[in-house]
Every structure is written in structure tokens, then in C-alpha cells.
Inverse folding.
């Protein structure tokens, strides 16, 4: 039998990273020493205090049963308390908080919950690919909001045609931004909320990297701080990066209760929530937000990012001082495009980075490095790159 993928799968943009991954694996199999800045996955273990709580929670029989639909009341309470402590934002754990199996799940399912076939979704580009693929799975039409480097990678809401804005159901926005590392000003968030109000668009604010700011830990605002945001917006928080927990799959959404009720209906039909013991560990993580090991991890990523950015600058890559996330987003030297730099670094220096075009066409001319590599290995990678003829 020939298995034919559904049209929604065929409609997905090509997954550029697959080809690079194949090449990387072949190089490793051939015995080459690859330094991999490809995927944004922490190289450090989850903090011990979180693992301890899982050990304890995993042994409790009540936790072995199906989890609570919206997340355990205790987890939702902890998420609300975190938002209050960190941002001074008040949400009701009953209805205004929804546990997620990682923010990726929530972002993808959100389009299924809100978007009818043919309806428009505003998708920032360059951007995290799930906004587009989630839209396509729902039969929606992604409308690209280009992020402009001259505007510090912020969208220009005024340039969105009136008919597009009128027809849009949902808008995704993400700061601190993957892949560009840009941090949103409060003014941008105010404009986004005002735009969403004016055109009756649901705003999904992806705050997966809000706790990954290098200078001041509280540099990134919450969209829920903006007056009126709760009428139009939900915000998605991830435990993945802040606490080195990518594999645990834990996050939450907070904000507009009607939007969360729609998302919850999709989720309760497709997944049954995260293991309650992992939610328990998530409570420990959030309660420990101010612990020194969390700050140390953040500082470590910051140090690596600054080192890498400075080295790349010397090589002719244009890159601003890293402020947040764990990515360095670099403009390629003259005469190159995204893919040619990725291939050159892999073929000639055994260094892996990803092409900006993996985040949409607007990423052309850029490459992204994830600083999930030690200082020593980062220095080694820079030394190799210095030896190349550019
Ligand atoms: N949003 C952005 C912008 C991301 O870069 C990522 C992960 N790379 C996610 C969301 C998903 O994070 P998780 O599902 O692990 O919470």
C-alpha cells in the first residue's frame, strides 16, 4: 500500500533542519568532532531540587491516575503565584490558567481551538515554526508579519492591510524572540494589545524565554501587565529553558478565560494532560524561581552568548550584543547566504548552526547559534572558524 500523507502535512513548509541533521550525523559517523550549536536544548541537567520533588511525587499512588483536565489545582495555583510574584499580574487559577505539555503543544493546539478553515492567522517571521504549522493544521491561512531588523525585529502593525486585520482570528507574537534574540519594549506590547482590541483578534503571546534575560532578570515584561490585555490575550510560559527542563514537557498558559476554555476543549479531546508528578515538580521549579542555581544557569548562557557574539563579530558577522534567549542571531558576511554559511561551517570547521531561512524566508542572510555548548567548546569552535578563508 502506498501511504499518502494528508494534504495538511503536504502543505507544511519544507523542514530545512532535516537535511542539516542528516549531514551532521554522517559527519559524526565518519569520526569527525562536531561542535553543535544547532538545537536550543540545554546541555545542563535539571536542577536537583526539581528532580527531588519528582522522586517524591512519583511514589504517590494518587499521582499515577489520569491527570486533572486543566492541570492540577496546585500547579495552577503555583503558576498564578509565580505570575503575581514575578510580574505583579493577577490571574485566577480557576479558568485563567491552563497547564500545558510544553508551550509547543499549546501554541499548536490553539489554532485548532480558534481558527476555521480559510481564516487568517498573523504569523511573525522570522519565527518559531509552530505558529505556521499549527495554522496550517487548522486549515487557516498564515499571513506573514515580517519582523524588521531596522525596527529591532518588531512588527509594524500599521503596515497590515485593513482587510487582513479585519479577517484575522489569531495573532502570534514572541519576545524575547526566537530566533533573533530581540526583547520587546512595553510600548510594543501596548501597541499589540491595542491592535488586537481594535480588530478583535486573539493574541497569543509566547513568553517561553521571558526568564532568559541576561542583564536584568526581569527585563522582559508580561503582556498581562498591559491594561486590557486579558480581554484579548493569553500568554504562554515554558519551564523548559528557565529550569533546564526541555524533556519534561511542562508549561502553562494564562490570561483570557474564554480562549483558555476553547484550548482546554481541544486538549481534553486529544491529550489528557501531563503526569501529575511532573506537575508537582513544576510547582517546585516555579517556587524556586529565585534560587541561585536558576540565576547561575541564566548567567552561564549569557556568558557563552557574549563570547560567541564577540568572536563572530571579529569574523565579519554582524550581531548585536545578546540580551536574552539562548540564541545568537548573526548576519552572514557579504557574499554569503544563510545556507552557504551553514554548509561552509559544517564542511570546513565541523561546526553546526542553523540557517535563518529555517524560520521563514525573512530569515535569509542570517544564521542562528544556540549557546548550549560549553565555553571551552565555544572557544574551540571560534578558533576553527578563524582558520577558514572567508
Ligand atoms: N516558543 C519558542 C519561541 C521556542 O523557541 C520554543 C522551543 N524551542 C517553544 C516555544 C517550545 O517550548 P516548550 O514546548 O519546550 O515549552
Amino acid at each position: 500500500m502506498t501511504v499518502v500523507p494528508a494534504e495538511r502535512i503536504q502543505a507544511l513548509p519544507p523542514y530545512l533542519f532535516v537535511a542539516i541533521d542528516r549531514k551532521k550525523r554522517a559527519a559524526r559517523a565518519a569520526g569527525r568532532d562536531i561542535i553543535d550549536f544547532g538545537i536550543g536544548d540545554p546541555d545542563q541537567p535539571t536542577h536537583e531540587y526539581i528532580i527531588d520533588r519528582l522522586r517524591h511525587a512519583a511514589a504517590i499512588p494518587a499521582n499515577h491516575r489520569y491527570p486533572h483536565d486543566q492541570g492540577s489545582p496546585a500547579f495552577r495555583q503555583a503558576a498564578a503565584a509565580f505570575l503575581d510574584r514575578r510580574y505583579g499580574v493577577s490571574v485566577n487559577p480557576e479558568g485563567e490558567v491552563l497547564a500545558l505539555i510544553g508551550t509547543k503543544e499549546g501554541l499548536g493546539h490553539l489554532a485548532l481551538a480558534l481558527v476555521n478553515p480559510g481564516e487568517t492567522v498573523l504569523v511573525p517571521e522570522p519565527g518559531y515554526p509552530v505558529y505556521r504549522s499549527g495554522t496550517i493544521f487548522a486549515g487557516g491561512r498564515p499571513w506573514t508579519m515580517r519582523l524588521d531588523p531596522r525596527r529591532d525585529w518588531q512588527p509594524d502593525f500599521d503596515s497590515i492591510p485593513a482587510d487582513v486585520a479585519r479577517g484575522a482570528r489569531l495573532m502570534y507574537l514572541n519576545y524575547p524572540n526566537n530566533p533573533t534574540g530581540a526583547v520587546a519594549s512595553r510600548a510594543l506590547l501596548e501597541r499589540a494589545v491595542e491592535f488586537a482590541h481594535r480588530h478583535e483578534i486573539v493574541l497569543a503571546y509566547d513568553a517561553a524565554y521571558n526568564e532568559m534575560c541576561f542583564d536584568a532578570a526581569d527585563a522582559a515584561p508580561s503582556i498581562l501587565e498591559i491594561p486590557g490585555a486579558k480581554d484579548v490575550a493569553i500568554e504562554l510560559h515554558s519551564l523548559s529553558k528557565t529550569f533546564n527542563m526541555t524533556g519534561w514537557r511542562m508549561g502553562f498558559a494564562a490570561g483570557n478565560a474564554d480562549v483558555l476554555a476553547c484550548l482546554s476543549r481541544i486538549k481534553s479531546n486529544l491529550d489528557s494532560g501531563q503526569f501529575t508528578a511532573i506537575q508537582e515538580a513544576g510547582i517546585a521549579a516555579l517556587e524556586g524561581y529565585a534560587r541561585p542555581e536558576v540565576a547561575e544557569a541564566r548567567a552561564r548562557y549569557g556568558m557563552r552568548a557574549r563570547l560567541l557574539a564577540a568572536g563572530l563579530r571579529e569574523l565579519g558577522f554582524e550581531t548585536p550584543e545578546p540580551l536574552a534567549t539562548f540564541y545568537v542571531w548573526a548576519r552572514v558576511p557579504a557574499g554569503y547566504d544563510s545556507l552557504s554559511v551553514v554548509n561552509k561551517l559544517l564542511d570546513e570547521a565541523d561546526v553546526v548552526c542553523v540557517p535563518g531561512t529555517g524560520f521563514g524566508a525573512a530569515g535569509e542572510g542570517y544564521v542562528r547559534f544556540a549557546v548550549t555548548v560549553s565555553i571551552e567548546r565555544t572557544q574551540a569552535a571560534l578558533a576553527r572558524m578563524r582558520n577558514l578563508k572567508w
User: Anything to note?
Assistant: The CA atoms of residues 316 and 334 lie 8 Å apart. The mean pLDDT is 96. Residues 292-314 form the longest helix (23 residues). The chain is about 40% helix and 15% strand.
